Amino acid sequence: MIYRLLAWRLGFEWVNLKRCFGHGPERVHYLGFGANLADSILRERRITPLVAKSFTLQDHGLRFDHPSAWENCSYASAEHAPGEKLHGTLFTLSGRDAARMDFYESVPFMHRYRRTWAEQDGTRLYYYQTNRSTCGLLPTDEYLGYIVTGLAAHPGVDDEYRQWINHHPTASPGRLVTSYSSPHQPGHSRVGDAYRRLTLHFFLNVVRRVSLTEWMIR
Question: Fewer beta carbons below 10 Å: N end or C end of the chain?
């Protein structure tokens, strides 16, 4: 587990370093519908969208089934769902910022999310879809607040959907999970579970937070 988390950090440093030399020529369209709806999150991550506009992806639905690092709590994902609508912001990102976003969403090495591609009205875009769909989880108040605020001025959101998202039940974080890096396998010992929680704590508070190159991104 620890080797995978360290590989994630080293890979992240590499894509950060490339971004320090500019955006590069590649452009992609990314549909954000979770915490990335918040400008504060993008600023914190030093992600600079080249264009941002409200967008509704047809026949897709919002789900809160991606397990977080804390028991009982989840992040957002999306599924193909005929008749449903996925409301968010369509960001035009440089390829280098998109690669950095992949690391923030734990795509490389940890494979918690994956890029899923779709096309609508001549626009090819991707969104992040969970690889760990888990029933019975709920977002935290803070996480849901990012979505509520981000969709406040979205012209495609009807009153019924706003009521649903504004009053969606939430959960308080439990203790750290033992299955963050890889899906949980039954029969883990208490010592093994303690090691996984300790490693995850180290990842969240040291490995994930400390970057040698991110401060150079402008």
Answer: C
